[in-house]
Structure formats: C-alpha cells, structure tokens
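Note to self: user wants both folds in one dump. Writing first protein now.
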Amino acid sequence: MSKNIGTICHCGMMASRRYMPYCSEYCGAYKEGNYSKTPAGHFPAIPISCDLCEKVTDWRKHDEKARRFCCHGCKKKVLSSSIRRPLMNYYLLSNLKRNGGWISAQGMISLMEANGMTGTSARWSNLMARWVRLGVVEKWQERSETPTYRFRSNIKKPVGKIIIDKGA
C-alpha cells in the first residue's frame, strides 16, 4: 500500500496519484509558480502557452484535467496527425519534457499509466526509439550486466508541433 494515500492538496482536496502531492496539474502550477488568491479569495487564472500554436490562454482552477491547448481545433489537429498513435506519442513526449531529467523505460511505466496508457518498459523503449532517431529524445546506456537505457527530452518547442512536424 502506498504511503501517499490520503494526502491532502494545499487547496483542501484529496491529492491525485497522477499529480502527487497536488490534486491537479493546476494546483501544482499554482503552488510552484508562487501565485496568490485574488482579493475575493478565488484561485487566479494562470497564463499557459498552447502546445501547438503557442497562443497564451488562461487556465482556471475549475478547468477539467490538464489544459494543454488553447482550443479544440489545436487539440484535434495534433490528435489527428498522420503519425501512428498520436495520443500515445503526445503523452510520451510531454511526460519526458515535464520530467526534465533522465528516466528509464521502467520509470516511464508509472508516468504513462497516469495517462491511462498501459505497457511494458520494452514497449516504451521501442516507442522512444523513433524519437531518438529523429533527435527529439536523447538515449544513454548504463554499463552493467543487464543494460539499462535512460532517456531525456531534447524538446525546445511545443510537443504538439513536434508531433505534427515529425509525422509528415
């Protein structure tokens, strides 16, 4: 049993397994960005950049889930990309970008499960191989009896743009 079960977010809601120790990605951005409540006691709108067109929009506490796109059109454009399995690749790259450091394929399992994607470390490693070839992801191999590969994001532009550009 996990020791984090029953953790309460700073806003008073139950923390989510996906965004631990926060209840949502918004609460994490709110706390880490040092925002403060409005004079009326409401959570502020946090400016975010669209993951495709880079247009800045407001992200509010009551918005469901993580807000990554400015409109449904941008989201649809990314998810209907010509690349095979665009949603899975989008989550894979956005998780790598958000993680920041080196992560093993084994470590990707829990990140991808939080997005509702199941698979083995071999599956995520094979999926990352394409992005390594295209220079979007770096690969490093630990020297040991059983080699462990670690991956790190090389992403400088929005993930949605990469999915569309590399899918062509």
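First done. Writing the second protein, which came from a different request thread.
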Amino acid sequence: MTSPKFSAEDFYGADTSRDIEVAVTFADLDQEESTQFSSYLESGELTVVRVLSLADGKVSAKYHGSTLQHPDFVQVREAGKAADKKSAYEQLRKNARYADLPAWTKQDDAIPALKKWEGDHADQCTRQRDDGQFFGFTEVAQGYLGRYTRFIPIHAVRDAADDATESKGSPTTELMDLVVRSALANREDLKKLKEETDSKYKEIMKPGNLAELSTLEERLTRTLRAYVPDAAISLSWIEAGGIEVPLPKAEVKLVEDGYPSSVTRTGHGLQRAFILTLLQHLAIARVPTDQKAGIGTSGQAESSGKTTVAQRVPNLILGIEEPELYQHPNRQRHLAKILLALATGSVAGVARKTQIIYSTHSPFFVGIDRFEQIRVLRKVRMGRQRPKVTQRVQATLDEVAQILWEAVGKPGTKFTGETLRPRLQTIMTPWMNEGFFSEVVVLVEGEEDRAAILGTAAPMKCDLESEGVSVIPCMGKNNLDRPTVIFRQFEIPTYLIWDSDESKKTRSLSRTGICYAW
C-alpha cells in the first residue's frame, strides 16, 4: 500500500509518540534479487521496515532498509543544505582515517563516495537504517520490491459483484485492460480497421465538403445585420479528431453445476474462490509489458525467432482472512489442500513462488503434522487500564524432538525433527487439530474415555466446551506423548488421562513431568 490510512487510534494506547513499525524479511533470494539488493542484505536476507508516524498532525509512512554504515558519516547524510553537507564532508577528510575520500566536487557525488568507503571498510561499519528512501513496493528509487513480490489481501468481507463488474478501478476491468484489450489493440486487422475508418471520416469532415456551415453563417449574418449593419458572423470548422474504435467489455458469470449465473446469484463460497482467482491473476498481469514477451504457460521464455525479454512473474504473498467462511466442511478440507499445494509450488501456471498467510478458526486449516507452520496469537493484558497486546507463540520440530528424546531417557540416536515428522501422521485428526484453538487440552486414550469424561461433566452442570476445554482422543496410550509436548510448546495447558495399565512410555513421561494420570 503506497498511501496507508491511519490515525491516532491505530497507535498503542493512542500514543503517537511511538511510531508503528512493520518489518518484513525476505529469504531464499535468487541471484538477480541478491544483486539488486546486495547493499541491504544481512546473512543473505533482506529486511524492509515501514515506519508510520503521526507527530504534530503530520503523517509520515517511509520504507527503510538497513545497510552497513559508518557512524562518523551520519552528519554528512543528515545535513539538509548542500553547503552544510559539504562542510561536514570536508571536515571528515581532515581526519587521516578518511584521507582516501575523494575531494568534494558536487553534492550528488558525496553519498556514493561514502558508500564506496563503507564497502571497502565493512569491518569498521555497523548495520543501520537508511534515510527512508527505500520506497519498497512502488518501483521507484532504490525499491523495486514490486517486481519480485506482490502482496494480495483477501478480506473476510468483500463484494465479489463489484470485483466482477466492468467499471473504473475494478479488478476485472484492470485484468481485461492488461491481458485482453491490450492484445486486441495491437492486432493488425483492428489497427487497419481504425486507420481506414479514421481516413474516411476525416475525408467526409473536410471543411470544403461541408457546405452546411457556410449556409448557416450567411443566415446568421443577415439576421445580425438587421441589428448592427456593419457586423458579421464567421463560422469555421475545428479540425476533426480521429474516431476511437471501442473495445468490448466482458460480462462475468460463474458456472456451477453446468448453470451460468451472475456473480451476485452464486453462493458466497464460490464468490470467495472467484475473488482469490481474480486477484492472483491480476497480480501476475500487472508485470510490466516489457517483461512479458515470449512467455509460455510454463513461465519460461519461448523461442519465436524474435529477440524477447524473459518474463519474471513476481512471487505472490496471499493474505487471506478466514478462508473457511461460507464453505462446507468437505470444501474447507479441499481448499486447505489447494492452499498448501500453492505454497509448496505444486500448482502450475500461478507464480514461481507463492506464500500463503491466513488467519483461521477452523481445525481443517491447521495440522499437527505441520505444527511448525502455525503461529498462535493471543491477547495478553499489559496492566490496568492498558490495552491488551497480541502475543505470538510457535514451536519447532527439533524442540519437540529434543523434549521427547529426553523424556524417554535419551536412548540410542538422538531424535530430530526429521525423524519426528513421520511419527505425527498417526495422530492426525480434526479432534487433534482442535487443540490449537483451545484454552485447555485434555488428552485421553480413546473415544470411550472422551465420552466418559463428557458424560461425567454433564450432570455436574459443567460445560467443558463453553470453558474452552477440548477433550481429545489419541487412539491409544502410545500416542499421548507427541501432542502433549506440542500443545505445551504452544503454551496451551495440557492434561492427560489414562487407565491403570501403565506402560513404559507413560512411566517415563510421568517421571519427567510431562504427563499426569488420574
């Protein structure tokens, strides 16, 4: 977003003395990206920070990268006037340490000279933010992030009918302009039609061929002279412009079960899928025209006998708010699989890389087999009369593997995340995934145990679900250990109940304090 809208209410506690900072780190850069942003990289990663400030009613939203800078050069960089910058620069050169800086010639050469010195003396520099001229997604100055990455937000509430209607500013109109109408306008037969029509129109509209204007001029002059004898009226034709050949508009209909309907008459689930599809393709279509030449469906440049510029389809970041909205359970599971396939690069023709970030309340969109991708967000209190803040919690495969290995007495080869991953397949159930949304998790051996606990709680007027307590069957005593450690790594209070035929595993877990038996 180039011009974000924000007010004092967006700041924590409405305290505008503290800026809002949003940082994004890009990793796994290719050669072109690494070259483009080489001066901003740290350990092969690029971090861009957007700082939103609202001081004295003045709104500011700047992008910052961080580069290696020498502390003594700050005065030169922050000097406002050219004279002040020159004075600070010349003062630096008086220090023998900076004797290799070139003499001042003009202001535009000073900063590049400092950057070259810093590049040659990286060991004497520290990483600091730049001056806010890293413009990010707007493809100006030192930015160009938009060429490599596009962020597409999919809000929970969005009118698909507005997106589908051909009107100014709508995604459909922009997509049609970029993909269809731009191609139509360059067709030779359409160009020829426009030229012929324009030529005939101008021939007809030549002033010499239009006697009607002269006739009207004479009539008006005669009438005017009845009032002012020496007056006259002169009429002349303004040269006619060319004729514009209108290009067609598209009518969007969605076909479901073989029946086409207007977007407004389809279900909200299909509408959301339509929005997702439209915005994905729009992001790709926005790639500058000179990058698109000679590209086939594979995304690779095709040989056509002409010199072309290879297209670079930007990586996509899809930010989806509650993808489960308006979807049946089976469709939720299907959509979750599609999003996972997009993120792993197994859907052809979309983008080179696609990152999916979504917020969800559905167990179908999380999985204990990929818990390392989950971030649990909670609101925590920061004191009386202070707004809550959001706490983010995550866990890693290696951390969980280490705890399990220690719990069973460190036998043999050390457990690792890779050896743990296949052992998570046996505990994959929607019930298990529900634990990530719970206030408290109670793990039991089987469904009968779950029924016994719920049955006992009911006559006691204890509604466990209303209290955020999930009773989850693990399909066997040997499956209690992994979910216990995982949920506790996410700081979810977790309790276990098993019967009296204690196994070696439950004894070892009990000794380490991981499990409790009732």
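Dump finished. Worth passing along: Residues 356 and 451 are 37 Å apart (CA to CA).
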